[in-house]
Amino acid sequence: MAGDVLSQNEIDALLSALSTGEMDAQQLKDENTKNRVRSYDFKRALRFSKDQIRSLTRIYENYARLLTTLLSAQLRTITQVSVVSADQIPYEEFVRSVPSMTVLNVMSVEPLDGRVIMEVNPNIAYAMLDRILGGKGEAGNKKIDNLTEIETKLLRNLLDKTLDIMEEAWSSVAVINPEMEEFEVNPQFLQVISPNEIVVVISLSVQIGEETGMINLCIPHVTLEPIISKLSVHYWMQSSKKEPNELEVEQIRTQVQGATVPVVAMLGQTDISIEDFLSLDKGDIIRLDRGVNQPLIVQVGGVPKFSAQPGQLKRKLAIQILDQFKGGTSL
What predicted TM-score, i.e. pTM, was given to this entire model? Predict the structure, then answer.
């Protein structure tokens, strides 16, 4: 183990002891050197590497940016969403950490197994509802278990729209299809997995107008297990060097062949003054820089590609390709 994780209270107590002289820094260093035996809690066995946690954080940082845009548009007010932390803890600890009454959305993420929980803090939930119903986005003092059927429907409709951007945020790693399954307000009624199973909790800080709160996403390890290898830097390095397969090459070729590009046969060009241009009239002749015996230059997408000669085909003007254009030479 790299070391024990101290709580904020323990950190504050340690700093206080060092500042008052109750504990000496050198003494603390000597004790750490002598004490090589550390306690290990098997209930908090780490299932994700730091590399994988960082990859999940990057995915949800992208999700937070997309969610900021979505909520700002839907609620018609300034909204800010950012990732605060990404931790792996037992599911039981996650359930204890959320309020006794909150907004819990349980979603499936096919083709992956298991279910993901999105917990929306009541302050944020009521701020969303207030904006949807035409208010200023104030949370008020309402209790989340008193949601009416209309309020529940409005909130579910808004949260359903967040699933599409979650699919987009995950698209670089895996193709998932998130779908809302349950809407609950009491975490004690949710037994998605066994209490001792490890989950990753992604905490998002959300600000809607003057109201702030958290949205927590609980993802079980069993859900991510089939794609866990894709969350490593080694996978990204391999993916970036991977050569396209025959099917991908054929798809690219088909799309390119169906693209349209402008083809222009240049009779020639010249420079005239603004005065001469303004005095042009019907029947006037403009002398070009290319003789009648010289081939035309055919441009494809604005780039010279061929030399050609003019003519007619079935009473229509046409050109006949003579050769590829030799850049820098007179044709």
Answer: 0.57
